[in-house]
Structures are given as C-alpha cells and as structure tokens.
Amino acid sequence: MSEVLSIKDLRVSVDGKEILKGVNLEVKTGEVHAIMGPNGSGKSTLAYALAGHPRYEVEEGEVWMGEENVFEMTPDERARAGLFLAFQYPTGIPGVSMANFLRTAVNAVRGQEVNGEKQAVPITEFRQMMLDKMSMLKMDRAFARRYLNEGFSGGEKKRAEILQMALLEPRFAIMDETDSGLDIDALRIVSEGVNAIKGPEMGIILITHYNRILNYIKPDYVHILVDGRIVASGGQEVAEGLEAEGYDKFIQKTLQEAV
Q1: C-alpha closest to that of 162 among 142, 141, 179
Q2: Residue 129, Cβ neighbours under 10 Å: how many?
Q3: What is the topology classification, in CATH, of domain 4-258?
Q4: Strand 93-97 to strand 203-208: parallel, antiparallel, or no bridges (unpaired)?
Q5: pLDDT in tens, 19-70
Q6: Most confident range, picked from 90-94, 168-172, 243-247
Q7: Domain spans of the chain?
Q8: Residue 48 contacts residue 56 (beta carbons within 8 Å)
Q9: Does the global pTM surpass 0.70?
Q10: Cα–Cα distance for residue pair 34/31, rounded to 1 Å
Q11: Which residues contact 166 (CB under 8 A, 6 or more apart)?
Q12: What would the 3-class secondary structure string for 10-31 be?
C-alpha cells in the first residue's frame, strides 16, 4: 500500500521574508514528482524546510509523512523516519572516508534498537551492502576509500549522494537540483543511478531548473513553482511546454488561462 507525503498550505519565510506562500502537494511512494521554476521561486526553500533546516521558518501549514507529523520531528528524526535530502552543493569533509561516513549514516538511520539501545549494522554486513549498491550504480570500489566529497568532480559528488540514497532506502527522497553543474555524460550516469534505485517503496521529489534531466528520469507529475506557489501541474507535457516557450511566456500564458 502506498504511503503519502502530504504538504498542506505550506508557508515558509527566510530572514523575515516570505518565500513559500501556500504550497500544496501530495507525493505517493512509487511516484516521481518534478518541481520546476525560475531562480528565486522557492524550490530549494521547499527542500530545506521539509528537511528541517533551522534558517527556514515555517509560518503556516502542515506536512505529514504517512501518519507522522513532520514538523514535530527534529531533522535527525525526519531522516530516521525515511526522509532524505540530496544537496545541490554537497560539502566536502577532509579526513572522513566515504565508507566511514556511509556506515555512520546507515547505523544512525537503519540501525536496530535492542533493549532500548541502537545496535550498529555488523561491519561485514554493511560492507557487502555497500559493495552491492556500488556495483549496481557502476561505481569503482576505490571510491569508498576517498574522503567525503574532497576533490570530487561535480558528477562524483552527485553520485555519492545517490549512493547514500541507495543505502539509506528512504520512503521519500528530495533531490535539490541534482543536475546542477553536470555535463551530459555525468547527467546520464547520475540519472541511471536514480533509475536503478527508485521503486514502489520510494517517492521522489525532483527539483530542477531545466527539462534535460527529465529526459532521463521520467516524472509521473510535473509542477511549476513561481513566486512561492504552484501555478501549474501536469505530466511530461508541462515540462516540454516550458522548454519550448521559456519561463516568462509559459507562466504568463498559464496565469491568463487560470483567470
């Protein structure tokens, strides 16, 4: 049975300025929802507000993940409940290997509680799990020994995010402009990774500025976010119309049709 991430009349401000002005959205597990919009429309604000970034202040609205009230959870509790955010600009951490970082994350999110204490995933089990996911994503094993995002290319940083997503197996994954800074080869490789791990138990919100990633990751729904509100929703044809006409003309036509 599908679970639902339900966003109701979400209003969010940043440094006292209202950015999201009443966003409504429902995402079911197994679905891919693309959110497109011009710069400054509120796409990343939506991502960070859902993840629990303290700078993003929720003024009104509700977000539910199944029967759980997301806004009653701390960011780490949201992660353990199955909410994942892939960053637009992942941070490098010198001295921390990918393998150690990933094992710590998996233990924090997926570790079993026994007699009230969190039990780590056995290292041999984790290692096999990690290697299986890396093989599925066509990643060299040497990748796991490198420091987290240190000296990584744009494509390598995004593949590291996809590897995290594969290991954590979230119920809902938010991908904040994953295509940002990628050349066509890196975009194809990253998209193949997403397609390899998405499935009926994971809902995806794919935030993007351009249509090109949607040629590789086919969305079930496309939403256009403008000035903090969703002004249009539909299928792939919405993204194609936006690509053909450009934001200004497409948005103007959409707003005229809504009157």
Answers
A1: 179
A2: 17
A3: Rossmann fold (3.40.50)
A4: unpaired
A5: 999 999 999 999 999 999 888 899 999 999 999 999 999 999 999 999 999 9
A6: 168-172
A7: 4-258
A8: yes
A9: yes
A10: 10
A11: 133, 136, 137, 193, 196, 197
A12: EEEEECCEEEEEEEEEEEECCC
